[in-house]
Amino acid sequence: MSAATDMNTPILKVEHLSMKFGGLVAIGDLSFEARRGEITALIGPNGAGKTTVFNCITGFYKPSEGMITLTSRDGSRFLLERMPDFQITAKAKVARTFQNIRLFSGMTVLENLLVAQHNRLMKASGFTVLGLVGLGGYAKASRESVELAEHWLEKANLVDRADDPAGDLPYGAQRRLEIARAMCTGPELLCLDEPAAGLNPRESLALNALLNDIKDTTGTSILLIEHDMSVVMQISDHVVVLEYGRKISDGDPAFVKNDPRVVAAYLGVDDEEVGEVLTAVGDEHVIHELEGEPDPDHGPSPSSSMMAGPISDTIEQSGDGADRSELVKVSPDASKARIVEEREKAKSALSNALPAPRGGTPDRLTLIKGIGPVNERKLNEHGIFHFDQIAAWKKADIKAAEEYLAFDGRIAREDWVGQAKSLAKGEADKRGGRK
Ligand SMILES: Nc1ncnc2c1ncn2[C@@H]1O[C@H](COP(=O)(O)OP(=O)(O)O)[C@@H](O)[C@H]1O
Ligand SMILES: [Mg+2]
Predict the structure, then answer these.
(1) What is the 3-state secondary structure (H, E, C) of the chain?
(2) For 10-324, CATH number?
(3) What is the pLDDT of residues 79-96, one digit of tens each?
(4) Is 21 in the pocket of ligand 1 (CB under 6 A)?
(5) Where in the chain are all domains bearing CATH 3.40.50.300?
(6) Whose CA is nearest to atom 18 of ligand 1?
(7) Which atom belonging to ligand 1 lies closest to the Cα atom of 55?
(8) Distance 67 CA to ligand 1 centre (A)
(9) pTM for this structure?
């Protein structure tokens, strides 16, 4: 395959992909394509199988069935399902980021970008990784590598933080650093697992800008996982929707967002609401928050959960540990009914629900970062109208709410309870004081 590939060849072709874990069909006969130079989004509710698809593409899992073909710009073709993960990174040039940030938190921002290039550096100069990150640090690194790192520092708007430990960066900046690091490997395909999760609106805008820049100025194609539909609608060229491991829709954002199967898959969301969110989250909600208080970087610091694991090829290859800890062990046939049933149970477990807002006026729950209009309505439907109700959530309530909203770990990570506490205090001051 020597002739240069024309731009219309899909960069990635997934055909009849299946992945089974014991009796559970995590992915069933999935076929889709990602076109070169585009941003393709893989969306679906939690547990739909999105991360599993990434794990198959990046060689962390060997699929039970199916073919995954990557065609590079120079026409080289790789059958990813037959390659070990390190070759998928090094030869097929697939880079990924993880649902949970994985940076070398003790190393500086610049060092993180240099380590990403250690393959090339080692080849060029015989450096060892330890030599690179150890004593001499980046002073020893080749000029070219430093230049590439600086290029991506600039693109990711991190120049000012180059010498700070990665773990000290705000959450959104860490997300961009991860992407910059992946880009330093010069990937054909960049796979991002929920890059917008936990970002505040300002950080989301910065992320979108970075992704659009990558799309416009590099030859890298992007495959993006997201479970919140509103996020992808603004930046994707093409959207593939998964539910229970199967594809339920595939097309451009406008088509997908109006597809009744997609609307139904986002449980409890009616057509009108989906439309509302798609426009509202992008505009009104964001603008509202941007005009508000400067947004302190939210949530518990992610640095504690970051680790410097073993350095493998360019991007660490490892499973999504956190995902695995909340396995839904259900048989494929019963899975839909069971998940619905579990969500019903979770709803009724929200213990401090009220039948109606006190005094007829609900608080604007969307002021809590992480709660958008859809989730606000879902919470309202189950009697949560006020900040103080969320402020009073105990562990079990958080768990129930996360199950109900299908938001694994996000409520804790974004510290909704803490946010609700300060908002509730503000409301109380208003009521008690000035009025
Ligand atoms: N290693 C594994 N062992 C058993 N079940 C798994 C494993 N990985 C994923 N699953 C299951 O496969 C399904 C899809 O998971 P995942 O791909 O993480 O979903 P998503 O990323 O869309 O939230 C879930 O039911 C999950 O529990
Ligand atoms: Mg996932």
Answers:
(1) CCCCCCCCCEEEEEEEEEEEECCEEEEEEEEEEEECCCEEEEECCCCCCHHHHHHHHCCCCCCCEEEEEEECCCCCEEEHHHCCHHHHHHCCCEEEECCCCCCCCCCEHHHHHHHCCHHHHHHHHCCCHHHHHCCCHHHHCCHHHHHHHHHHHHHCCCHHHCCCEHHHCCHHHHHHHHHHHHHCCCCCEEEEECCCCCCCHHHHHHHHHHHHHHHHHCCCEEEEEECCHHHHHCCCCEEEEEECCEEEEEECHHHHHHCHHHHHHCCCCCHHHHHHHHHHHHHHHHHHHHHCCCCCCCCCCHHHHCCCCCCCCCCCCCCCHHHHCCCCCCCHHHHHHHHHHHHHHHHHCCCCCCCCCHHHCCCCHHHCCCCCHHHHHHHHHCCCCCHHHHHCCCHHHHHHHHHHHCCCCHHHHCCHHHHHHHHHHHHHHHHHCCC
(2) 3.40.50.300
(3) 999 999 989 998 999 999
(4) yes
(5) 10-324
(6) 51
(7) 17
(8) 19
(9) 0.62
